[in-house]
Amino acid sequence: MADVVVRHTVEADIAKHIEAQVPGTSASVRISSWPFVGRLAASGTVPDLRAQVSGVKIGPFAVDSVDIVVQDIKVSRSDLARGKVVLKSIRTAAIEAVISQQSLDSGLGLPVTLGAGTVGLAGVQAAARVAVSSDRLTISVPPLPAITLPLLPTALLPCSANAVISVGQITLSCTTSSIPPALLAAAAAG
Prior knowledge:
Strand content: 35-45%
Shape: elongated
Number of helices: 5
Oligomer: single chain
């Protein structure tokens, strides 16, 4: 029973620190590890951590969801003995963010239709090109003007993102072997 209580406390603490890194958001965290305390003490590892973040805003656009899945987390066992969680490494973190058609409508103030690789504006539906730079997502639908959106904060999207337009949404995703900054800050504060 104590193992479950400690795991839930750590999950809540990490969620609170993610929310502090990206103000105005709500986060939930789920750690998959049984036993949790015993595994940390014996090997300093956690097999899987999943975080869902909602309420993320990028300029006038709302991000419907941000999902972070981190696998094979290694923590400092010597710091654990002092009551601190210090992440040493991860095998991989996969981040996925979804921006809905409704969010684009609201942010642009225009009706937008998203299809499989297409965007419709002002009654014109055409193949779209998507380009992601370090801080912007640009959607080009010739002959219409390009749509430019800021990217998510690097605390949540710390790697070069891919963008895919599908029916009703744009999905940004990336994978990294570096610890996402929102989790690193959470662990350092814990």
